[in-house]
Amino acid sequence: MDDNAPTRGTPVGRRLVLGMLGLGAAGVAAGPVLSRALDSVLSGIAEKDPTGLTGLLPNAGGFRYYSVTGPVDAKSATDYRLTVDGMVDHPVSLTLADLRSMTQTRLVHDVQCVTGWRVPGTPFEGVRLADLLDAAGVREGATAVHFTCFDGLYSESLTLEQARRDDVLVALKMQDAPVTHDHGGPVRLYVAPMYFYKSAKWLSGITLTSDVQRGYWEQYGYDIDAWVGKSNGRDDAPTS
Predict the structure, then answer these.
(1) How far apart are CA 212 and CA 179, in angstroms?
(2) N or C: which end of the chain has fewer CB within 10 A?
(3) CA nearest neighbour of 20 among 84, 74, 66
(4) Residue 116: its pLDDT value, please?
(5) What topology does CATH give the domain 82-220?
(6) pLDDT range class, residue 64, cuts 50, 70, 90
(7) Which residues form the Oxidoreductase molybdopterin-binding domain (predicted)?
(8) Is 180 helix (H, G, I), strand (E, B) or coil?
(9) Residue of 84, 124, 78, 82 whose CA lies nearest to 99
(10) Is pLDDT above 70 for 52?
(11) Which of 187, 188, 194, 180 is nearest to 109 (CA)?
């Protein structure tokens, strides 16, 4: 995801991403030697992959770092802003300091990618999305929340009921440290019970809407309601 010079390839749907599961699982299950070899191969592939989909495959550490447009310019604590607008009584633009001053909630759940890999017991900490919505004042008729990102392209959505869950955060920390740029920092969305593509990186906008708007990957066939174990044709164990 990049707000300068996008390097998007041909749109690739869910079928290809799920088809990559076998290769990723092999690298995780076969041990350190094969895993290192797989990482080397994937690095070479990734250099020629404008879609960024190779970044969805797990390395030995569990996580892969990817975007849908290419490199993304980082935001510092001084230039980061998160807007809350749309069907609200009090639109706001929040700084990182504003978010840090709010009540923080820490959650620990597994992270499950739709391609099959899982990172167990991953802590996230931040402001409950429900608290931000309450502070903004949700207007009558709003039924969904749309999220935009400062890469200029990625987006996601939740129903208002989903967004108000206790396990949905505007996350400032991941693994008990500030969310790094590669992981979507300084602020990202974290939707604990859903596949990780719902946890949008580089979060910059929260907009209350009258209906659910399809997110980036949903436009290519991913499920809008992405409950782990109940969507995208997978039967992974729930993460919460």
Answers:
(1) 27
(2) C
(3) 66
(4) 87
(5) Sulfite Oxidase; Chain A, domain 2 (3.90.420)
(6) low
(7) 71-217
(8) coil
(9) 82
(10) no
(11) 194
